[in-house]
Design goal:
With 262 residues, this protein is α+β, with helices and mostly antiparallel strands. 28% of the residues lie in helices and 28% in strands.
């Protein structure tokens, strides 16, 4: 059984407060984009995980695809399978590719073995994999709050526009990303901003992590500036970086950026 896990971008990302559990309360709009991995699951005599394409760091036992299988295997006594993952979405780039892979494994297993899990139950399992994993179960524009696991529908439609993306192959640790963050509630919430016309987002819709990342990595800020120079309606870093995206009415030309039609 084959599927194609997709990435996401953050339309705005505000860090609101530090929580007692060590996490942070945040607000963001998650938006799915058509940059995809390829994922295949087949029944097998013994369990196996095989990856291709971009190299995935770390031991395969810690991969979210493997953990997703293990979650359901405990509750449903699943037979062994082989997972084949062709990795195209960059890792550690703020695009949620690993979270998508794990969540899509849950959905594939539900279909393959006819587990009849509801959407809510799949989201419950996905949350055990990571805070943003449940987003990929329904995989549609979503306002995220709490530590990123509380979801509400978001009426944002970027269809017909073009998304330019560039990742400078720079890994930014979570510790570094949070080092310059000073949690505060914004004057206007992201849920209100994304209802405005896109050409009004530039000075309102912000990613708080840019304040800590740009001073340390001016090359990331430069990408954002270049996107506006090329005519972006809106540009931002996604997640904790280091990928920068720009939304365009027409596809930009003569750039090293990856361009997708939304």
């Amino acid at each position: 059984m084959l599927s194609f896990p997709n990435a996401k971008i953050n339309l705005g990302l505000n860090i609101l407060a530090k929580r007692e559990d060590g996490y942070h309360d945040l607000e963001s709009c998650f938006y799915p984009i058509p940059w995809r991995d390829s994922l295949e699951i087949i029944e097998s005599a013994e369990f196996g995980f095989h990856s291709y394409g971009l190299e995935i760091p770390g031991d395969w036992e810690h991969n979210l695809c493997v953990k997703a299988y293990q979650l359901l295997e405990v509750d449903f006594d699943l037979p062994p399978i082989e997972i084949h993952l062709l990795k195209a979405i960059p890792m550690g780039a703020g695009l949620g590719g690993g979270s998508a892979d794990g969540s899509f494994v849950l959905k594939l297993l539900n279909d393959l073995f006819e587990l009849q899990l509801s959407t809510a139950k799949l989201e419950e399992y996905a949350l055990k994999l990571g805070s943003d994993c449940p987003f990929f179960i329904q995989n549609k524009p979503t306002l995220a709050s709490g530590r990123g696991e509380i979801f509400h529908a978001c009426n944002v439609n970027l269809s017909g526009l073009f998304l330019a993306m560039y990742n400078p192959d720079l890994h930014i640790s979570t510790k570094e990303a949070f080092s310059g963050i000073h949690p505060t509630a914004p004057e206007v919430s992201i849920s209100d901003i994304v209802q405005l016309p896109i050409n009004e987002w530039k000075d309102l819709l912000v990613n708080d992590f840019e304040t800590s990342i740009f001073p340390n990595h001016p090359e990331v800020e430069k990408i954002k500036e270049e996107m506006y120079q090329k005519g972006a309606i809106y540009s931002s870093m996604t997640g904790t970086g280091s990928t920068v995206y720009g939304i365009f009415e027409t596809p930009p030309k003569n750039t090293p950026w990856k361009v997708l039609e939304l």
